[in-house]
Amino acid sequence: MPCVLDLGVPGRRDIRALSKPNVGSSSHGSLRSSAYTRGVSTSSLNSFNTRMNPCNPPLHRAFIALGSNVGERVEMIEKACTEMERANIRVKRTSSLFETAPMYVLDQDPFMNGVETSLGPLELLDTIQSIEIGLGRKKLIDKGPRSIDLDILLYDEQVFSHDRLNIPHQLMLERDFVLRPLCQLIPHERPPFPGHSTTYLSHLRSLPPPEPTPHATTYISKNFPPLHSTNPNRPTHIMAILNLTPDSFSDGGTHSPTDLTTLTNTVRTFIASGATIIDIGGESTRPGSAPVGEAEELARVIPAIRHIRTSIPEAANIAISIDTYRARVAEEACAAGADIINDVSAGLLDPNMLPTMARTGKAVILMHMRGTPSTMTQLTDYPNGVIQDVSAELLERISAAEAAGIRRWRMILDPGLGFAKNQPHDLTILRDLQRFRTGVQGLEYFPWLMGPSRKRFIGRLTGVEKASERNWGTAATVTASIAGGADIVRVHDVKEMWQVAKVADAIYRVDE
Q1: Belongs to which family (predicted)?
Q2: Nearest residue to 271 via CA among 306, 234, 238, 303
Q3: What is the pTM of this model?
Q4: Which of 490, 495, 502, 509 is catalytic?
Q5: How many whole angstroms separate alpha carbon 290 and alpha carbon 262?
Q6: pLDDT per residue over 132-162, tens digit each?
C-alpha cells in the first residue's frame, strides 16, 4: 500500500530560507509509497525556526516512500516511522496507505506503503538504510518481497545525482503507487525534472489506470479486517452502541457497568446479530447533557472493556471502541483492550487528546462538533452550507491530528449528525454524504462513520416520540448512509440494522 508523508529534515548547509526537505528516491528498492516536500518560502513554514545558527540548523522538506509486503505490514511501516522520528526526521503529514499489486515481480504479496525522511541527501539515505537493516529487512531478489522498503523521492527542489542516489527518483512518474499518495499532499506542484511542466495530479491522470485498482486502507487492529474506503464492493460494518450511562437519550440505564452477566449476554447478542464493532460510552453527549467526572466515567467503562477482552471468547475478533472526549479515559481504555478512540469533539474538548491518540497508535474517529453538549444546539450557523463548512472544519481537525503525530491511515471521519446540526442540516448530510467523499480535496480517501440511530430529527419526521421506537426511521437513514458511502453505521438496534445493511450493500456496494 502506498502512502506519503510530508517531512521536516534538519540540514547542515546554510540556505537563504528555511525549507522542509524533499526526499529523493534511491535505487536500492522498489517504491510502494511516497513522501514529498519541496522548497517553500519561509512564510509557509509554520513550525520551522528560520534563524540560521548552529543550534537551529536549516530544515529541508523531504518525501520518502515506505513499502512492505511481508509479515505485519502496517506494524512494520509504523515502526519505520517511529525510527525515523528517533533519527530526527519529523513527519509533517502523511498520505493514506494504499494496497497495491506488485509491479515487477508478480509472485509476491501486495505492498503496504507509507513515507517520511530527514537530513542531507546522502545522510538521509544512510539513515533509512540503517533503519531498514535494524528492522530486519531481507530482500531476496531485486524488486521482490521485503518486510520494509524506504525510498527517497524528493528533497527540496534539488536535482541530485550520485552513484548511490538519484533525486528525484528516476522512475517515480511512471508509478501510480507513488503518484497517487503524493497527490494527496502536493497535487498542484510540479516535479523537478528538466522540461516537465505538468503537475503531479495532471500527470497521474494521464497514466493508464492500474490493474487492480489500488485501495486506500485504514488499519484497526491485527484481528480486524482493514477498511478499504475506496473499494466499491466493501461491506458496511455495524457498530453496536453500548452506553453504560443512566442518562443517554434513548437507552440510558439499560446497561449497567456492574452487572457483568447482563453485559456478557448483551455483547454476545450484539455479535450474533452482526456487530463487528462495539462502541462503549460512559458519559452521555446528548444535547443539554451535564458532564460526569473523569473518575466516574473510568469506573463505568474500564471494567466492561476488560471483561469483554478477557471473558467473552466470541469477542476476540470484534473491535472495541471507546466513546470519550477525555484523554485519560481513552488511554486507560486502550490499555484495557480498546482498539478505537471515538471522540465526538475530535480533540477540541481535551488538549491532551490528540497527543494521547498518537501515543497509543490506535485507530481514531474524528467527529465534527462545535462547542459542548450543553452549548452545541446554539452553534448551527453554516454560512457556506453545511457540507462545505463541516468539510473545512474537519480538514482543520485532520491537520491538527497529523501535527500531533496521528497517522492518516488510522483516521475515520464522522460528520456528526445531531451535533451542532438542526434537522435540515442532518437531512442534507444524509442526502449528500457522497460530496464529502468525492467532492472535497483532502477528504477523498477516509472511511466515514454515520450515527443516525434514533436521532431526534427521525422522531420529528415520523411523530415517534419515544426514541427506542424509532427503528423504522433509523432503517431509512442507515440505507441513505450506505448509499452515500458510509463504511460504518453506529446503531442501537443491531439485528434489524444488520439486515438493512445487508440489503443496502447488495444494492449499492457493487463495482460499476
Answers
A1: In the N-terminal section; belongs to the DHNA family.
A2: 238
A3: 0.83
A4: 490
A5: 27
A6: 888 876 554 445 455 677 888 888 888 888 8
